[in-house]
Write a structure and sequence with these properties.
By secondary structure, the protein is of the alpha+beta class. It is 42% helix and 22% strand. It contains 4 helices and 4 strands; from the N terminus they run βββαβααα. The chain has helices spanning 60-85, 110-123, 125-138, 141-151; strands at 8-16, 19-29, 47-51, 91-99.
């Protein structure tokens, strides 16, 4: 894998017949960015989730439902990249935006798969552009307000 472990930005959705999730993130290797990070992360994890999504954009209940799944998928991605690089790495998955659908975002593995798609978009410009276009079209401030107002009913 030809990546110098510098910070990458990605965003993408994962969608199936009855599932939908969208994640935007920054991905970086912990050792290269320790000085920039104010958070302390436990050393027993090989991947760390830094959730920076406002509860007014993404419901806390949905976050609580999917957090363990996101951690498991992040660990898989970290172990996979570490194997490709031939050394143990620690990554930060800084989630800056998460989109949901009021009906289709509660199923298992939805946000884990969205995480994989977002990481792929970090390295694939076509996927990144598609994710950006999708976010602009379906996760505008007006659409977020609409989703949240219907979610809380």
């Amino acid at each position: 894998m030809d990546w110098n472990l510098e910070k990458r930005h990605g965003m993408q959705k994962w969608r199936a017949h009855d599932r939908y999730g969208f994640i935007e993130l920054n991905l970086y290797e912990l050792d290269n960015y320790k000085r920039e990070i104010n958070n302390s992360f436990p050393s027993d994890y090989c991947s760390n989730i830094d959730w920076k999504v406002d509860e007014n954009v993404f419901p806390k209940e949905l976050y609580d439902l999917h957090l363990e799944e996101i951690k498991n998928y992040a660990d898989f991605i970290t172990i996979y990249i570490s194997a490709l690089k031939g050394k143990h790495l620690n990554f930060i998955f800084e989630i800056t935006f998460a989109g949901f659908h009021i009906i289709d975002s509660f199923r298992k593995n939805t946000y884990g798969r969205a995480l994989i798609e977002a990481v792929i978009s970090c390295f694939n410009q076509e996927s990144y552009n598609a994710g950006k276009s999708y976010k602009e079209k379906y996760h505008s401030p007006e659409e977020i307000e609409y989703q949240m107002s219907h979610y809380r009913k």
